[in-house]
Amino acid sequence: MQNVKLNLKYSTLSEKEMMKYADQVAMIHEELHQKVNYKSEFLGWLELPTNYDKKEVENIKKAAKRIRGNSEVLVVIGIGGSYLGARAVIEGLTHTFYNYLPQEQRKGPQILYVGNNLNPNYVNDLIELIGDRDLSINVISKSGTTTEPAIAFRIFRELLENKYGLKEAQKRIYVTTDQKKGALKQIADEENYTTFVIPDNVGGRYSVLTAVGLLPIAVAGINIDKLLEGARFAQEKYADKNLKYNDCYKYAVARNMLYKNKNAIEILVSYEPKLHYIIEWWKQLYGESEGKEGKGIYPTGAEFTTDLHSLGQFIQEGTRNLFETVIHIKDSDSNLNIHQDEDNLDELNYLVDKDLHYINTKAMEGTISAHMEGGVPNLMITMDKLNEFTLGHLIYFFELACSMSGKILGINPFDQPGVEKYKTNMFRLLGKPGYEEGI
Ligand code: PA5
Fold first, then answer.
1. How far apart are the C-alpha atoms of 258 and 409, rounded to whole Å?
2. Residue nearest (by alpha carbon) to ligand 1 atom 9
3. Which residue numbers are catalytic?
């Protein structure tokens, strides 16, 4: 069984101190699981891997097959929790240069993203990149009213209608939104678009294992059954409220202990560039869930060894308020050997017969001990391999740990009141009705 495990060997934390959280953890565990069906608690994601609507999964697969058959490009419109999860899984599990590959080699549509910023150059460049090619769009918004995706949807809907005419455009627009509420739901109903539902009790950043993530992921040719199977395995594995046997809760407790020791910044590190968007997804999950009431660990990310040549100096010797969580992938899908060079001018012959994955792993080990010496505690999450099953597991691990960690911290990990502030100001400045000066 391919697994995901936590290693606290380099955490600087004592097991005895950690176990002092055992009662609190067990209590929070009970509370989370008891309230799983309360609509207002946004805990539906806890049981998604075992409870998710099987018919919806079949409909997702059918839609994905249709899109793969008639489109060279899928444009995913969404922001925050409505696109990061899909992008994280797609980039984590496809070819590093998936979107650059020729169509015959890629065997599926290019997946491109819009509606995650308000920049005109980005949108114009994307339209230019798509050119005359056949496309479909998947617009994703739980509220159905978020400005960035709403603007992008208006632009791309018009583009599609001009290109294909109303009827064909209707067949190429896929909407993922609330079951009843929101402007997007209203448009979808009026225009008869194929629609997928974001369950009421699943918040944006916890929604990757619903249609929000699963439709684009399936379009990229990724096996969504295996992804859900990995998450299901994790759901069962972390159903134990006993901290002693629960790696996921240990990660949550370790973070809180380090935070109390004045480590207010967590850097999620990977040595696999494909995990770039897993780090982005994790940053949103933890940042939006925990940063409240003047509290929380600031989540940031780094890609090594690349960032050892940019952030490495700071991590080694800068302000001592950091800890690192390293995602270590044990087995690499592919490898490269270093060959003998007679002249050895680059002095690399000492690496002959050592492969690149081995060298990357030694870089990781060397970095962990250097950073430890520099006073940076380390938590390590080891994945046996990077595939659908282990990534499904990792997603569930991080979601559950985030809710446990937030509850230990004493905040509500399922709301995001602070996000509204910029919107109110922006709407006032833009003259949106109802947001005039003084209101
Ligand atoms: O996690 C969240 O709730 C947010 O990041 C949302 O996903 C994001 O703001 C997008 O919201 P919506 O799906 O309503 O457009």
1. 12
2. 80
3. 288, 309, 423
* Ligand 1 nearest atom to the CA of residue 206, by list position: 1
The mean of the pLDDT values for the chain is 96
How many angstroms separate the alpha carbon of residue 19 from the centre of ligand 1?
35
Is 432 within 8 Å of 273 (Cβ atoms)? no
Residue with CA nearest ligand 1 atom 15:
141
CA distance 376 to 371: 5
If you measure from the C-alpha of residue 142 to the centroid of ligand 1, how many angstroms do you get, rounded to a whole number? 7
Instruction: Give the Å distance between the CA of 286 and the centre of ligand 1.
Output: 14
- The binding-site residues of ligand 1, defined as CB within 6 angstroms of any ligand atom, are 79-82, 141-143, 146, 149, 203-205, 288, 416
Spatial separation of the C-alpha atoms in residues 74 and 113, rounded to whole Å: 8
Q: How far apart are CA 173 and CA 188, in angstroms?
A: 9
Index of the ligand 1 atom closest to the CA of residue 146: 15
Index of the ligand 1 atom closest to the CA of residue 416? 3
Distance CA 34, CA 349 (A): 60
Q: Do the bridges between strand 378-383 and strand 4-7 make them parallel or antiparallel, or are there none, so unpaired?
A: antiparallel
- Residue 76: strand pairing partners: 113, 138
Strands (DSSP E) contained in 142-232 are 173-177, 194-197
E strands in 206-321: 265-270, 298-303
Q: How far apart are CA 239 and CA 248, in angstroms?
A: 10
Q: What is the DSSP letter of 438?
A: T
Q: What tokens appear for 263 in the block?
A: 């480590």
Q: Residue 340 Cα, ligand 1 centroid: separation in angstroms?
A: 53
Which runs of E-coded beta strand occur in 166-303? 173-177, 194-197, 265-270, 298-303
pLDDT in tens, 107-133: 999 999 999 999 999 999 999 999 999
**pLDDT tier for residue 438 given thresholds of 50, 70 and 90:** low
pLDDT tens, residue by residue, 51-78: 989 999 999 999 999 999 999 999 999 9
How many CA within 13 A on the CB side of residue 24?
A: 16
Assigned token pair, 57: 């999964």
User: Do 414 and 41 meet the contact criterion of CB atoms below 8 Å apart?
Assistant: yes
**Residue identifier of the C-alpha nearest atom 3 of ligand 1:** 204
Q: What is the rounded CA–CA span in Å between residue 188 and residue 195?
A: 7
DSSP state of 176: E
